[in-house]
Amino acid sequence: MALTVCTWNVNSIRLRMPHLDRLVEAVAPDVLCLQETKVRDELFPLLELAGHGYTHTALHGMKGYNGVAILSRKPLEDVRTQGWCGREDCRHVSARVDGVEIHNLYVPAGGDLPDAEKNPKFAHKLQFLDDLGDWFAGTYGTRDPLILVGDLNVAPLETDVWDHKRLSRVITHTPIEIARLNRLQSSLRWVDVARRFVPPDEFLFTWWSYRQGPDGADWQRVNRGRRLDHIWATAPVADTATRFEVLAEARAWLPPSDHVPVVATFGG
Predict the structure, then answer these.
(1) For residue range 108-120, what is the model confidence (pLDDT) as tens digits?
(2) CA 231 to CA 214: how far, in whole Å?
């Protein structure tokens, strides 16, 4: 049975609700994983999403920032939330769908200075990635059917950013972050599903800054993007992948998120 999973950092679910019609029409995901929902669970727009068929939900939200959610047209089982680095800041929720366990993550951005000694936010990001990798390696095996999605806030490949040399000194593409993300990926030999469909030597972006041009309107012409949003799977699931897509056109949906939806289909 096919399972289509979409991940999107919506940068406020209530602000982006008008875009859900367009997203559902474009890709019809069975499971929609959102980051930066920015709303407490009791205020999440469940009725509106039920109208799109998403009647099964796993929420982990807070007021004003962060927040993750899994919305599904299929029943969810074993719903869990996880805190990291001694904080409960709503960055990880998981659930099982059709026998596959989906982990939805929002990795800390890390601030502006890529120096863990001088920037506590960057130190937190690195610790978050380390702890996450240790936990996956100690909790699961490489043959367990798992999918990991979300805004991981790291662009690991040279072709995941518009200018590798310039951005190697900028948070999201520094060597230390890439090393930490690679360590997380190796924890279960996660497969980067995007790069099974888009060769590693081709540029691929999922995020464009709001600062590109007046009000971000020149994002497409300037095209200074980064690939921060990922879909990974363990080998038993990744081997069934039949589709991958980045909905770059969503960057123009007003009011825009600076991230766009990323979609993959497994099985079928």
Answers:
(1) 999 999 999 999 9
(2) 31
